[in-house]
Amino acid sequence: MVLAQEVKTDREYPPFDRSTRDGYAVRAKEVAAGGQLKCVGEIKAGDTVRDALATGTCLQIMTGAAVPTGADAVVMIEHTQREGSVVRFERAAQAGQNIVPRGSEAAAGQTLLKTGTRLGYAELALAAQVGAVDLQCAKKPRVAILSTGDEVVLVEEMPGPFQIRNSNSVSLAAQVRIAGGEPVVLGNAADRVEDLGEKIERGLKEDALVLSGGVSMGKYDLVEKVLKAMGAEFYFDAVAIRPGKPAVFGMCQGKPFEAQGKPVFGLPGNPVSTMVTFELFVAPAIDLLSGAEARPLPLVEARLGEALNEKPGLAHFLPARVEWSGGAPEVKALKWQGSGDIAALAKANCFLVVPADRDKIAAGERVSVLLRKDVV
Ligand code: AMP
Ligand code: MG
Known about the structure:
Number of strands: 26
Distance between the termini: 20 Å
Low-confidence stretches: none
Structural class: alpha/beta
Strand order of the largest sheet: 6-3-5-4-8-7
Largest sheet: 6 strands, mixed
Bound molecules: adenosine monophosphate, magnesium ion
């Protein structure tokens, strides 16, 4: 979730001079290598500390306990020897050592988390530390998912010999959730202008609409045409990538009229194309709709494990596996039957990115991989 408020400190952090070690609280100038001091008591974490450290003495102190006034250093217990109440020090102490001074992590009233921050586990812990129990968060963007195609049937149905199950609605819903949105699965539209128009209109009631299928060059690929008739303004209607070339993106007025328009993505229907184009274009849009900044794509560099020979002209996103067995990432493309091959993608943990101007890449070269952040 994305924070829709600021979180501020309720007091200074740390609220007292805090010892970071188990050891002895001392005056640094009284500790010489081989010197000794009398230990006159102990301070545990949580103890109320009122009295100052008397000159010529030390106090045993635990990690997380408050350092008494007068003391300006903590000597680790590992660097001392003790006999009865006498503590012998192996080395000289430096003022400030092993103490985090009061207010050094944050001042009272200081902003710790800004509006638009994504709440991960560290951010939640930080809010918890300052007692921010209820956090106002941005509403998750509702993303309508509409598949298209006369051949598509419900996953619960037995498809006829020339039909296919609607797996795209399932993968898109998962991708929307992982990206921080709330999927609204609208089902499937037939490849007919009226049915598409009605269902697209329903989809435009949500914060964004993602369609699968119907954006290629076929006679029954009607998505762009219907969106255009509804007044959509297109920002791109093809992308120089494979798979995913026919993907389109536009802004469309919802009903009732909304000045800003609704983002609409027409993704190709072949499942691997749908998945790749979602990661490249829709996931960052969901970040923006969530009131956060778009996270960068999870691209990492890896050593190519096996030579590649691809057709140049388009940037390719090949189903691949990256392994860290030798410490450094090494990636190999998987065998696949093209953009309908869901089984290949289910074996992949990343997409290997082949730039548009490359055809042959030798084993050992550095390549970019787009991680599947749901499995790695
Ligand atoms: P299209 O982009 O409409 O030309 O669809 C390309 C191919 O993707 C179709 O022939 C189907 O095999 C497949 N496809 C389309 N829609 C879906 C869907 N909802 N679920 C799974 N596969 C689909
Ligand atoms: Mg189709």
